[in-house]
Design goal:
This protein is mainly β and 193 residues long. The chain is built from no helices and 11 strands. The chain has an 11-stranded mixed barrel. The radius of gyration is 18 Å and the shape is globular.
Length: 193
Amino acid sequence: MYNGAHQLSDSFSLQTMAHFRYFETASEFQQGIYRLGLNYKTTPMFNFTLGLSYVETDTQYKNPSELLTEFRIYEDFNFNTNLTKLKLRHRFRFEHRFLELQGEKSLQNWIRYDLNATYPLSPLWSIYAFNELFLNFEGDLFSQNWTGAGLLYKFNNHIKFKIGYFYQKLKNVGFDRLQFGVILNTDFRKKTI
């Protein structure tokens, strides 16, 4: 996983992401997702993002199949709070998914709610946990639930590494997932002397 936040001004930043998911630890490709968003911070506690995603998904484990492709428009509303050292982030995401599979096109509208908690163990190490619920307004309302936890290592002020586990629960099946990631944060604001 790659996630990035690139500060453009005190209020605006670019959010970038590229995730590669596999049915097995490093084989049997399941999904590639690429995301770009413009984030606007209204207060230290509240911000929102408008963005685009492109997704390719293999829907058949160990069977040859055409990839499901998606182009998504999304809006995120984030609310951040601190309980002493514990940092909580509530994210509400509204997604408009334009899907295509075997020449058939459709539109789905989803709402996702993510509760993410981070707690520092030391200046360099933190633990995190999250739960994200996915609701789909076309067909079955409940779509997915993700629950996970792991460790974050702060290499420096710009780079963090992430390792963890999450369980992806769909309506009739669940997947155990390992997470390996890098987080890159840059700051392009003009520096004053």
